[in-house]
Amino acid sequence: MALAVFALPNLVAESCTNGADMAPATRAALVSTAERYFGFLSKGDVENLRLHAIPSLASDFSGVESAVQDNHPALADAKAAPRPPFLLEADGAAPLARAEFFCGVFGSNGQTSDSAIFTLSNLPPGKYGVVILDAPSSKGPDSVSFILQQLASEWKLGGLYIKTTQAGGHDSAWFLAQARELQAKGQGFTAWLYYLEARSLASPLPFMSTAATDKLYDESQKAQPADFPADGKILDLAAGATTYKLTSLFPEAVGNDLDLIVKYQVADVSNTNQAYQSNLAMMKALLIKYPELRNAFAAVEARAVDSASRDYGTLLAMKDIK
C-alpha cells in the first residue's frame, strides 16, 4: 500500500508499494529476479552479476565482488526464502537529496508489523525494487537483500547487502535482553553498545526501519551515555599525560566473535611503530575506565586516524590487553 504523508499523492516525489498491494506480475518479476541473482551469488558467479548490474554499479563492482567472494561458500547450498518485496518509485528530473519511502499501513503509533520506511540519499528518479531473502548458511542465518532498478523492461542489480542476523551466536532479542540487564547493573556504556548491536541485527538494511527497529531506537535513546562519542561528539580518554580523543565506538561481528572497534584521532600514522604503541596504550586506558567491556567483547580493534584520514589498526584479544 502506498502512503502519502501531509501531501496529495500526485504531489509526492516518492511512493512505495508493498508486496500485498503490488500488481502480481510486478511482484513475481521482482522475486524471480532476486532468486536468479541469488543463484549467481551462491555459485560465486561474479561475472553474471556484473552483466546484470546497472551501469554505475558495473563500472565499480569491487564491493559486490568482495561480498560474493566472502559469502558464496557459506551460501552454496542455502535455500533462500524471499520476503514480500517492496516497489519504490521516485519521480522528478534530478536526484533526490533525501528520499523517504513509507511502505505499508501506519497506525496512530507509527509503524505496524507489515510496514517499513526506506531513507536514501541522492537517489536518481526511477523505479526500484527491494527484495530480502532469508538464507540459512553454514555460518548461521543470513539475510541477502537485492536492490533492483528497472531499466527498460529488465530489473537490473543496483545493490547487494549480505548480513548475518546473529553475532557471536546470538540474535537481536538476546542483545536487547543483555542491554537491559547491563543497564540495570549500572554498566551503561556497555549496555549502549549492546543496544546498537540489537538494532543492527534487527534490520537487514542500513537505510530501512521497521516497527521493531523503531521500538528499539526509542528504548535505546534513553540509555545513551552522555559521554559516548557519536554525531561529531568526541570522548576524551585520559591516560597519564596523554588524552586520547575517541571519535567512534561500535560493535562488529567477526566470525563467531563480537569485537569492539574504537577509532580515535592522532597527528600522524606514518610511523607505524609509534601508531602501534599508541593503539596499545589507548586500548589499555579504555579498559581501565570501562572494565566491564572485557566480559562483553572478544577483542578490541583500535584504529588510529590522522588528519589525512589515513588509519592504522591493531586488533588484540581481550586476554592480551594488559
How would you concisely characterize the structure shown here?
The chain is built from 8 helices and 16 strands. With 322 residues, the chain is an alpha+beta fold.
Which structural traits does this protein have?
322 residues, single chain, globular, five-stranded mixed beta sheet, disordered N terminus, 16 strands, six-stranded antiparallel beta sheet, 3 domains, alpha+beta, 8 helices
Portion of residues in beta strands equals 25-35%
Based on Cα principal axes, name the global outline: globular
Report, as a whole number of angstroms, the end-to-end distance. Answer: 56 Å
- The total of beta strands comes to 16
Major sheet: 6 strands, antiparallel
Give the helix level as a range of percent: 25-40%
Give the C-alpha Rg. 22 Å
Mean pLDDT: 92
Description of the molecule:
- There is one protein chain.
- The chain is α+β, with helices and mostly antiparallel strands and 322 residues long.
- It has 3 domains: 9-164; 172-221, no CATH class; 235-320, no CATH class.
- 31% of the residues lie in helices and 34% in strands.
- The strands form 4 sheets. Strands 1, 2, 3, 8, 9 and 10 form a 6-stranded antiparallel β-sheet that branches. It has a 5-stranded mixed β-sheet with strand order 12-13-14-15-16. The protein has a 3-stranded antiparallel β-sheet with strand order 4-7-11.
- Strand 9 (140-151) and strand 10 (154-164) form a beta hairpin.
- The radius of gyration is 22 Å and the shape is globular.
- The chain starts with 13 loop residues before the first strand and ends in a 5-residue tail after the last strand.
- Residues 1-11 have low confidence and may be disordered.
